[in-house]
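I hope you will forgive my troubling you with a question about protein structure. The record follows directly beneath this note:
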Amino acid sequence: MNEEYPPLSFPEPEIRNRRTEAPKLPPSTAQAIASRVAKATQLQRQLRPISRRVHRLTEQQRRAFFVKLRHAAPISLTGTGLKQISTPAPNVTLAVPKSDDLNALAQKITAYGHNAIRNNHIPNEILVGRLESIEEGGPLDRLSDDLKEAYNEYVNADWVLVEIEVTARSSGRKQRHQEVHQALADLSNFLGPGVLGQIYEQEYSDTEGMLRAVVGCSGEAFRQIVESPQWQTSITLIDARPTFQTFYTTLRDFNLEHLEPIQPPPRNAPTVCIIDSGLSNGNPFLREATRDELLFSFLRDRPNDVHDENGHGSGVASLASYYLLNIANGAVNASSVWVASARILDEHNDCPDRLLSSVIREAVIRLKPLGVKIFNLSVNVFGRAWNAANRRIYPKRSWVARVIDELARQEDVVFVISAGNLESATVASLNNAAPYPRYLLEDQCCILDPAQSALALTVGSLAATTQIVGAGIGDLRALAQRNQPSPFTRRGPGIRGEIKPELVEYGGNLVQDEHGAVRTNAGCSVMMASRTLNPPVAHDVGTSVAAPKVTNQLAGVMRDISPIIDVPPSAALLKALLVNSARHSQDDREIQRFIEELGVTNVDWQHILGYGVASADRATYCDDYQVLLFYQGTLAHNKVAFFDIPVPLALVGTPRQRKMLTVTVVYHPDVHLRKVNDYLGTALRWRVFRGDTAKEDVMTIMCSDNEVEDARELRGANGIQRRSRGCVQHDVFEWSDHYPAFSANNYTLAVTSFERWNRTNPLPISYSVVVRLEETSRTVPIYNLVYIANEVQVEARVRA
């Protein structure tokens, strides 16, 4: 940060009530009208035998019975006589009957097929029009896809470890709690005191009446849990245990004595937490950046063993501490942050007998009171890519991401998560079919759970160099060029289709030999601390090593912004400042060459490169020709906040070089434990208008639900539809000629929020705004002009 030109704080925005428009359902299509009788007849034919069977069931038998509904779009079961118990896929709902018949659903289907059409709408079209089939559910419908494929293997095994979800049928919160825990007690009694199995850990959601637990048992006991009528409608999901993707280190010798003494961070430096495999604080690099009271183990059987047994946590911690290690003779290494460690992985990279979501929650609750606001998670669940092919298991397998999002909002902390890596053998296979970088568009290259988290910052990887060292270098070639995506990186989008990863960092490159084999090479790798004293360094590649570099930069933002604001910076403000600083390669030709080789539109390449590489120095930097304004606060639902951005009239007549307005808005909404389409409880949208647009016109535009750019607003590189999908909303506005009318008044940034869950009195959301104005010709010093105009606004708001 340039202390002579500190960032400026926006005054409190003007707030107006948003006049809401009720969303209008488009009229029924001619095709739907023409086929409604046939569709109703087909569904009734499917429903009739199911309804007769339900009527013959005893009360006890009915508690083990459920139906399976397939649908083209989300449906509501209100008024159908059914209660949803699970949504194993976005297009599948499992539901139980509330009584001994399904007459209510039958009547809705009949009305769809035969009742009069009114105002161009078929009766019950949102429910019946979306239904595709109705069938009786079976025991295996509750299994995740990979567990279903391995079912025979599991039931014949001596011992299996799975995760289950228990869901209540009751309506009241107290009744749901009792029902879920009674089902768990029944399961515990069935397993006995470790005879057939054991329940290791559980996590209960009071708002949803749902419990997640780790269960170990014999294969035969597992078969009974799946197939026995007792558990059919209480245990609504059975999932395989996750395996974790990290990286494997290769040691490299060097002489520590040739370095200058390693320097610890300042006593008041920020503290970040590495949630990983522990940390070897005997390593000389880590010894200077850690304190014993900040090292924790969350391994149930070894609560005091904080030592790193596989090297992953130590390597990540060193990059979070130093950003990079310099081992050249005479080099100075100075840590800029204190590192706390939460060990959750054992020597086998496993989280034994524990729910990943539960142990992450425990780590945050334990470490936040110690001053930790930033948590690095360079751990991904292997094989769980967030892609279309695996969407059947998304609602459940996003449990960890949802917990991370809940913690980010409730505890006001920031998670930095790696995007996940492609294995070298996978890269070789993909590259043979579709040469780099085109294979990155394949479904299996999507980000790994929990990188789809909406409130976390997800980090992908760039190649820093093509340098190859060692024997046989003439037969090797680097797969990626400098500043191109690393061959092993993964792509988004995120949970709601938003840009993921948001940021990228330099995480290494891969090389290929003349036979097509792909591997790492020390010259293309990243240097980091090892888990040993001798040698104290290692090198490897991965988004795992890119993420802690972003963590280091985020801590730098926290260090710089904290002294100039009256209250601690919110998690949303830290993210907004860092993302606002992100840039792609300064050499436009590198990006353009990559896009051409990828052969796709802007949408696809940004899901690989995000918004670019961020910089803590750039995040808060101002000078004569660039100025940054920021705000953190809360916004109630269905309100419009108006921020006045002073864009000086002095820009008129400047050389025809770019004027840039970079805007980043970050917010922390509630998230839903079960849904994906309605994952966020609040939607946020913003637009920017020049000074020649009246506030009343702005208000009219903001009151519309239309997501198409209005002719009167500025159009950014991303556009309103793309940037409004996520909780990190970023865009860049550029222009060359500045006319007097543009600065007739201040520019306006208008921000509005929408309630998505139809709650009566939802709490306001925490959000932050960061705006940077740059005059790239560096002709007109704009900082003082913006400073004076902003101070006038502050005084006017205080007097008002």
In short: The first helix runs from residue 30 to 56.
